[in-house]
Specification:
Two copies of one chain form a homodimer.
Chain A lengths: L4 E7 L23 H13 L4 E5 L13 H6 L11 H6 L6 E7 L5 H14 L4 E6 L4 H6 L8 H21 L6 E4 L4 E3 L7 E4 L4 E4 L12 E4 L4 H10 L2 E4 L4 H17 L8 E10 L3 H12 L4 H12 L19 H8 L5 H9 L5 E5 L1 H15 L3 E5 L5 H16 L12 H6 L17
Parallel strand pairs in A: 1-2, 1-13, 2-3, 3-4, 4-9, 9-10, 10-11, 11-12, 11-13
Antiparallel strand pairs in A: 5-6, 7-8
Helix pairs in contact in A: 4-6, 6-7, 7-8, 8-13, 10-12, 13-14
Chain lengths: ~450, ~450
Amino acid sequence: MKDMLLFAFDMNCVAHQSQGLWRHPRDRASNYTDMSYWTGIAKTLERGFFDGIFLADVSGLYDVFEGSPRAAIASATQIPTNDPFTLVPLMAGVTSHLTFGVTGNLSLESPYLFARRVSSLDHLTAGRFGWNIVTGYLDSAHKGMGEDGKQGHDVRYDIADEYMEIVYRLWEESWEDDAVVRDSDSGIFAEPSKVHEIVHEGEYFSMKGIHLCEPSPQRTPLLFQAGTSKKGRAFAGKHAECVFIVGNNPQAQSGVVEQLRQQASLNGRDPKDLKVIGGLSVIVGNSDLEAKEKFEDYRQYGSHQGALALISGWSGMDLSLEDDKKRIGHDNGDAIRGVFHHAGVSSIQDWVDRTTVGGATETIVGSPVTVVDQMNDWLDISGLDGFNLAYTVMPECVEDFVDLVVPELQNRGLMKTTYKEGTFRNKLYGKGNYLNDSHPASKYRR
Amino acid sequence: MKDMLLFAFDMNCVAHQSQGLWRHPRDRASNYTDMSYWTGIAKTLERGFFDGIFLADVSGLYDVFEGSPRAAIASATQIPTNDPFTLVPLMAGVTSHLTFGVTGNLSLESPYLFARRVSSLDHLTAGRFGWNIVTGYLDSAHKGMGEDGKQGHDVRYDIADEYMEIVYRLWEESWEDDAVVRDSDSGIFAEPSKVHEIVHEGEYFSMKGIHLCEPSPQRTPLLFQAGTSKKGRAFAGKHAECVFIVGNNPQAQSGVVEQLRQQASLNGRDPKDLKVIGGLSVIVGNSDLEAKEKFEDYRQYGSHQGALALISGWSGMDLSLEDDKKRIGHDNGDAIRGVFHHAGVSSIQDWVDRTTVGGATETIVGSPVTVVDQMNDWLDISGLDGFNLAYTVMPECVEDFVDLVVPELQNRGLMKTTYKEGTFRNKLYGKGNYLNDSHPASKYRR
């Protein structure tokens, strides 16, 4: 039996997935601007042997519902939202093993400066940094940038492919492994002949320059991806090392997991090199009854307006114009719409109900034994490598999970009792710090 | 007698100002990628009641000398260089009062996302954040971004003025003070009618959107500026709250200080609202002799190649083509060239000698009494409000200053013995967190 991977799914905002639960008397998510809120969460996660924290992000706002951001602003639905990258050095400073998977939207920033920020964080965290590659789904983000709106879905992935080529070259090709010698005697810090200018003239980008950073522990950070549309799966099969999917049905997920691993094979990669984690929420109590009561208590604070704002933004459909009982189909459109098809959501009302506790993820409610039974079944059926746990009431839900569920997982041999040493990538695969040779980026390394 | 302002002048790299001193046996600057290097410096500065740390930055490399980056790469002359913003949450996490003045080049990043990053850091640091506004002087930074080269000097300041208008509106205008109510009972986190979309259609930028962040403690971060060309002084007089100048002659500096304060007056501001700090290096020993010996010891490790690379980049002149004895004039060109005119540098050789210990700043060498005498005289003659101390051997020079010079400064009543409470701006002026009403940005606040 292998250790499951375990991440906390979080965001630098008040209401990430579970809309309205910031109103719960014990919730502290509205303290998201305070350092102590985040250092506390980081320490709890490391105490509970979580592999890492996965930070979502949007650079726009949810203004599809009613054609206005009104509901999102009132409900704090992922707005206000602060920069997730700023949390990493803070949480890294109070932990030794916790890793960081941070969402960065490549359609908003130049590869040259983005590559620098990422390398800087991989250095500071001693290789505990991962990047969740997204192309963005909110028009409003692009309006903030002075553009008319986002690119079409398929074009976004073409742009992403070219962007990846540039950042790979900056991370892998620009500085050779033995370029930096730090030789006090000769006065040579780095050998100029081993530092190479990257010249790129492509369809969407051009650049010329050396990477501003010396090689960081992992060079290319651990690569996450979350899209599960057809183009998204192809992109993940080529680039991602860890894919995050959501869904409320482990049988349906097993098909997605299978398709993702096939995509890796099609790209000449070992399918086992692609880790897949699924979204989940857990509400645990000392007994099933206590957990059920906690769930019912949380649920009272759910915000339907917030959920409608969130779902409208995800789907691109203004749900204020729809009958709540309307059944939802799958039109092969945006990734998020595809995700919800797989999740088996049946109606808007069903979708809203789920979203107020747990957001896009299924919620397991029960005693530690019940929770672990269900998590274990889920893994067996789906073929997932682990979970990304969305928060409900924060930080209570993380503390409950660490205090009650983690010991049960450990007792059953489903979860590690010590951390592996080294970088994010080495902890995950045990094969060193760099991307392995079958990954397309490795060809740029000299 | 007023307390002098005291900042540490640093950069997320190996060789910032004093070229070659990373080779000194006690120097640790080549550990700049380690968290503990920076948390150590931060704690030492706070122990010594420094007001803050001022982080320089370049987003390109020094490739003017010999028309190549060879000398800069070999000597680690501000290359490699990591993102300075990533250091702030780390150092804020181990301090309570230390403030952060961080260089951000506004010609490289969209105002929409830059404003968000800054607000996020102002939140996390509880208002201890400042932004050093620069327009950049290295062509190579722009080539990295896929542009042909930097804009002309005067155009850069026009672009900067428009950029400032946008970020001011995001910080000051988008969210009213009472927009965020955090009302659990009503379920209203923020009042949508009090959050305003910013629509900008200008010559260089367009954007449409609300600021992604709720108002941070200072809203607009404390504003630094460092340009002292004619356009730069006009820009500083309009925008800056704290201006950083360099020079080796307090008499000459007094003229610059006067001109800067006049520019503030011309913009309808109280000239006293413009703080001016001067660059300085200090090498202190228990006696004058010990300090002199330390200086001579440091000097052996200076790198002339590194200094030539640095100065060529600053001045835009390839010094490999010049006679080292050639006298340097002032052509009213780039800001950096103007700075060196004021610093009274007489020849390339003179410039290189100065740069190996202290960089662009004058170096004071002596016992605590000698150092404080000279610092005090300097302040009296120049009219400066304080100093920005460039490093030599790191972190030894900071520890020496804190252990030897700070007590002497305090004994003579030149320096505070406790920190003032509150935000960066409140610590500096004692008049609250926001920009005062005579600053041009204040007109955007509702």
